[in-house]
Amino acid sequence: MALTPEQQAEIEAARAEPRPTLRAVAPGMEAQLHIAHPILDHGLIRVVDYMGDDGAICQAARVSYGRGTKAVSDDRGLIRYLMRHWHSTPFEMCEVKFHVKLPIFVARQWIRHRTANVNEYSARYSVLDREFYIPAPEQLAAQSRTNNQGRGQLLEGAEAQRVLDILREDATRAYDHYEDMLTPDPEAGKQGLARELARMNLPANVYTQWYWKVDLHNLFHFLRLRADHHAQYEIRIYAEKMAEIVKDWVPLAYEAFADYRLGAASLSAQARAVLKRRLAGETVTEETSGMSKGEWREFVEEWG
Ligand SMILES: Cc1cc2nc3c(=O)[nH]c(=O)nc-3n(C[C@H](O)[C@H](O)[C@H](O)COP(=O)(O)OP(=O)(O)OC[C@H]3O[C@@H](n4cnc5c(N)ncnc54)[C@H](O)[C@@H]3O)c2cc1C
C-alpha cells in the first residue's frame, strides 16, 4: 500500500490534533479515523470523516414522538424494528467518507452504485503511479464451469506462472510507453503527449483513488451486494473491510443489518408455497415446484 508523502502528512496532522466537539461521536469510529487499511497488493481504504452514530438513527426515528435518545436496550429494539420493516430513512442520517485506492476494473463495478458522492484522482491533472494489481496465486483461477460470472479451480504450476508473467509484462510495457509518451525531450524534437491522452493505453489493473461519501442506508445496500459471495473477490475484499469498520461505527445498526439482510434469505411466492407443502409432508420435486431450473437450484442450495 502506498500513501503519498502528502497523504501521510495529512493523516499524521489530523491524528495529532484531536479537537473537542459537540457533535455525536462514535468511539469505534474515532479509533478508525484516518487509519489506512491495506487491501489487495497496492490498494487501501480509510475513513476520512463521518457523521452520526446509532443514537442519531434513533433520534431521527423518534422525531415523530418528540423524544430524545432513550436507553441502549430501547435503541437496539428500535433499530432492529426499523431494519426489519425497511424503514430506511433514519439510517440515512449517518454518513461516512472513505478514501479508497483501487484498481480501475474494480472502480468500474463500484461506480455503478449511484447513491454516493465521488471525487476521483484526475489522470488529466496528475500522472498515475506505476502500480498494477497482480492477483495473488490463490486468486488465480480458471473460468467457473457452473457460474458464467465466476471462478473455478485454481491455476497451477507452469500455467499460473505464465499468466502472472503475461500480466506483469503487459502492465510494465504499457506503463513504459505511457511514461515515454508523456516525457518531453526538446533535443529529440519531442513535446510529450498530454496526460489526458497518454493514459488511454494503460491497463484496467492500474490503480486509481477516490473519495467516496455515502449514507448508511446506501452503504448497507452496497455491502449486501458487494460483501456477498456472488461479488468478485477484488471488490468483496474492500466491502468486507468496510463492513468491519461499520460494525465499529454503529454496532447496533450493523447487528440488525447482519441479522435482517446479510444473514437473511428472501422467499418468492413459489418458494413459500413449496416450503409450506414440504412442511405438510409432501415431497416436492423440481418438476412439481413450479420453479425454473435456476430458481430450484438456488432454493435447494438454501433450504436443502
Ligand atoms: C454480483 C453482481 C453482478 C453484477 N453484474 C452486472 C453485469 O453483468 N452488468 C451490469 O451492467 N451490471 C452488473 N451489476 C451491477 C448491478 O446491476 C447494479 O448496477 C449495481 O449493483 C448497483 O446497484 P443499485 O443500482 O441497486 O445501487 P445504487 O445505484 O447505489 O442505487 C441504490 C438504489 O437506489 C435506487 N436508484 C438509484 N438510482 C436510480 C435511478 N436512476 N432510478 C431508479 N432507482 C434508482 C434503486 O432502488 C437502487 O437499488 C452487478 C452487480 C452485482 C452485485
Oligomer: single chain
| Derived structural class | alpha+beta
Strand order of the largest sheet: 1-2-3-7-4
Measured by DSSP, the beta-strand proportion falls in 5-15%
- If you consult CATH, what is the topology of the largest domain? Gyrase A, domain 2
Could you list the spans in which at least 5 consecutive residues all have pLDDT below 50?
A: none
Terminal CA distance: 43 Å
CATH class of the largest domain: Alpha Beta
Bound molecules: flavin-adenine dinucleotide
CATH architecture of the largest domain: 2-Layer Sandwich
Tell me what you see in this structure.
The structure is a single chain. By secondary structure, the protein is of the alpha+beta class. Helix content is 47%, strand content 14%. The strands form two sheets. The chain has a five-stranded antiparallel beta sheet with strand order 1-2-3-7-4. Strand 5 (141-143) and strand 6 (151-154) form a beta hairpin. The mean pLDDT is 93. The active site is at residue 226. Keywords: FAD, Flavoprotein, Methyltransferase, NADP, Nucleotide biosynthesis, Transferase. It is an enzyme of class 2 (transferase).
